[in-house]
Amino acid sequence: MSYAVKEIFYTLQGEGRQAGRAAVFCRFAGCNLWSGREADRLKAVCQFCDTDFVGTDGDSGGRFATCDDLARAVEAKWSPSLAQRRFVVLTGGEPLLQIDPPLIDALHDKGFEIAVETNGTLTPPPGIDWVCVSPKSGTEIAIKTGNELKLVFPQVGAEPQRFEALAFDHFLLQPMDGPDRASNTQDAVAYCLANPRWQLSLQTHKQLGIR
Ligand SMILES: C[S@@+](CC[C@H](N)C(=O)[O-])C[C@H]1O[C@@H](n2cnc3c(N)ncnc32)[C@H](O)[C@@H]1O
Ligand SMILES: Nc1nc2[nH]cc(C(=O)O)c2c(=O)[nH]1
Ligand code: SF4
Ligand SMILES: [Mg+2]
Question: Is 51 one of the annotated active-site residues of the chain?
Answer without folding.
Answer: yes
